[in-house]
Amino acid sequence: MELAAELRKPMLRAAVALMNPKVFSAGLQCIEKVTRNPDLVAKSDYLSEVMTAWTSPYTGFSLINNRDTPFHGDNGAGYSMMDTLLTVGKYQKGWLYLPGLGYRLFYNSGTMVMLAG
Fold it and tell me: Where in the chain are the domains?
C-alpha cells in the first residue's frame, strides 16, 4: 500500500480536521495558494507532481521503516501543534510506548495516534 494513498483517505483528513481545525484550515489554504501560484516556491521543478499527491495540511512527514525508535520528544513543535502517527504496512504485535504519560498502546498497522506538541 502506497503512503500517498493512505494520506488521501478521508478518515485521516477528518481526524486531523477534528483534532486541530485551525491548523488544518490554514494548511489547506497554503496548499491552494501554492498550487495556484507556483512562482512562490523557489525550487518548483517538481511542484505540480508534488501538489497532486500532497493532501495533508501539514508541511512535513517523517517516515520510519522497519525499526524501533529510541525514546524521544518532539521539542520543535508548538504546544498547540499535533503530531500524527500513522502506521501502514503488514506487521503485528506493534506497541507505542509513551513513558512520560505511563501508556503502552497496541500499535498494529492502520493505527493512528495524535499527540499534542
Answer: 3-116
